[in-house]
């Protein structure tokens, strides 16, 4: 079955987003404490695709060796990904482009892994500011990329962007199915 991987810096709101997308309150553990999701979790959705919950990257307060271990873990997944269709890189909508995120997107580009950006915690900004932050972020990306990845604006606490993300996945799955037959 096709897989879609969700990844981002710790505390970006990944667990909350996964809970929103799967409509389950306590599926992925959320916590204010970074580094909670340490293993890869697969969630079967609608019996036709897997949501893959990858560990967060870019903790500020862990040792170099455990950082390396995480990196290895993540790259192992991407290198063995057979069913992976696309990754979603989560970015806190309030943040300016950060080296860890840019490096990670660079890595996906090098591996030719398709990805979209999911901006999280949109409820933390006013609508006008949302537009500006997203535009600034995208303009920054254009320094490194010829083409912008698709992006979604979400809030797990206000249930924003859920349908858009799920529709994208279901449309992509339909296309894959069509190509198969
Ligand atoms: P993870 O470490 O990436 O899995 O992040 P979590 O989902 O555990 O969320 C980290 C923190 O951000 C928690 O305190 C959440 O309550 C908060 N959070 C997550 N998503 C949202 C959101 O959409 N809006 C707001 N306001 N807070 C959020």
From TrEMBL:
Q: Superkingdom of this entry's organism?
A: Bacteria
Q: In this protein, which residues make up the domain named EngB-type G?
A: 1-175
Keywords from the UniProt entry? Cell cycle, Cell division, GTP-binding, Magnesium, Metal-binding, Nucleotide-binding, Septation
Per its UniProt record, the required cofactor names are: Mg(2+)
Described purpose of this protein according to its UniProt entry: Necessary for normal cell division and for the maintenance of normal septation.
Q: Which family does it belong to?
A: Belongs to the TRAFAC class TrmE-Era-EngA-EngB-Septin-like GTPase superfamily. EngB GTPase family.
**PANTHER family, alphabetized:** ENGB-TYPE G DOMAIN-CONTAINING PROTEIN, MSS1/TRME-RELATED GTP-BINDING PROTEIN
Protein name, entry field: Probable GTP-binding protein EngB
Q: Which organism is it from?
A: Winogradskyella haliclonae
